[in-house]
Automatic annotation (TrEMBL):
GO terms for molecular function: hydrolase activity; metal ion binding. Coiled coil: none annotated. Belongs to the cyclic nucleotide phosphodiesterase class-III family. It comes from Granulicella pectinivorans. Keywords: Hydrolase, Iron, Metal-binding. This is 3',5'-cyclic AMP phosphodiesterase CpdA.
Length: 271
C-alpha cells in the first residue's frame, strides 16, 4: 500500500495559523510516502508570502514532495514581472523546475505548470507539456501508478456549469488516456471531489481518477470547510480518495467524503 497526501491552495498571506499547525500535525500522523502540492502557495506572489510558504514546506514530513505553481503565484499587480518573468519569485523561493517528476514506491508523478502570463485566473496546457509528461511516465514499469499534477482542473463533473477546465483539456485527456495516466490531481476551485474522466469524455480508451483538493489552510473557503486529500493505492488495482476536512468543533482535520476506485481493462471506475 502506498499513501499520497495531496494539498493545495495554501495561499500564504491569507493563511489561518491554527489550520497550518493542524495540517502539519495531520500529515505527521498520516505518514504519507509522498506529498503533492498543487499550486497557489501564496495569495499575491509577494516575497514575504513566498518566504512563509517556503518555511511551511520545510516543516512538511521528510518524504519526496512535488510542487507546481498556481495562478496566485504570479504577480497580479507588477505587469512588467508578469509579462517578462511571471514565475520569477516562485522559482527563487520554491522550485526552479516547472516540469518536476518524481518516482517513489510504485508511483510516478509528473507536474505541469498550467499558469500563463496572460491569464489571471484560468489555466492552459499545451501539446509539448503533455508529450513531455507522457514521455516521462511512459518510461516507468507497467505496474507503476501514473499521476499528473496541475493547479487548474483537467476535468470536472458534468453538472458543474460554473467552473472551467484548463484550456485544451479535451486534447490533454485524450493524450493522457493513450499513455494510461491513472490519476489527475489539481486544486484551484477550493472544493474537494473525486470522479473518473469517463464521466465527461465517454470515448476515452483509458479512464483515470480525477481528484480535486480544497484549500488546505487559507481563509478563502467557499462552499465547504478547509480540506486536503489522503490517497491510498493498492498497487495499480485499487485506490481510495479520503477527503480530510477541518472540524471547528474537534479543532483538527477529520475524515470527510470518501471515494473508492478499481482498475479494469478500460481504466478506472468507481467501486
Amino acid at each position: 500500500m502506498t499513501r499520497l497526501a495531496h494539498i493545495s491552495d495554501v495561499h500564504f498571506g491569507r493563511e489561518d495559523s491554527d489550520l497550518v499547525d493542524g495540517l502539519l500535525l495531520a500529515l505527521a500522523e498520516a505518514k504519507p510516502d509522498a506529498i503533492v502540492v498543487s499550486g497557489d502557495l501564496t495569495q499575491r506572489a509577494r516575497k514575504g508570502q513566498f518566504r512563509k510558504a517556503r518555511a511551511f514546506l520545510a516543516e512538511l514530513p521528510k518524504v519526496p514532495t512535488l510542487i507546481v505553481p498556481g495562478n496566485h503565484d504570479v504577480s497580479a499587480t507588477n505587469l512588467i514581472d508578469r509579462m517578462a518573468r511571471p514565475l520569477k519569485r516562485y522559482r527563487q523561493y520554491i522550485a526552479n523546475d516547472l516540469t518536476p517528476f518524481l518516482q517513489v514506491d510504485g508511483l510516478a508523478i509528473a507536474g505541469i505548470s498550467t499558469v500563463r502570463r496572460l491569464e489571471r485566473k484560468d489555466g492552459r496546457i499545451n501539446r509539448r507539456q503533455v508529450a513531455l509528461a507522457c514521455g516521462q511516465l511512459g518510461e516507468t514499469q507497467e505496474n507503476t501508478v501514473r499521476v499528473v499534477v496541475t493547479h487548474h482542473p483537467i476535468d470536472l463533473p458534468l453538472q458543474d456549469r460554473e467552473n472551467a477546465t484548463i484550456a485544451r483539456a479535451k486534447m490533454a485527456i485524450k493524450a493522457f488516456s493513450d499513455c494510461h495516466v491513472d490519476l489527475f490531481l489539481s486544486g484551484h476551485l477550493h472544493a474537494g471531489q473525486a470522479m473518473v474522466t469517463s464521466t465527461r469524455e465517454a470515448g476515452v480508451p483509458y479512464a483515470a481518477v480525477v481528484a480535486h483538493a480544497g484549500t488546505a489552510v487559507s481563509t478563502r473557503t467557499r462552499i465547504e470547510p478547509n480540506g486536503w486529500n489522503l490517497i491510498d493505492l493498492d498497487g495499480r488495482q485499487r485506490m481510495t480518495v479520503q477527503q480530510m476536512r477541518w472540524s471547528v468543533e474537534a479543532g483538527r482535520f477529520v475524515h470527510g467524503p470518501h471515494a473508492g476506485f478499481a482498475r479494469g481493462d478500460r481504466g478506472w471506475m468507481a467501486s
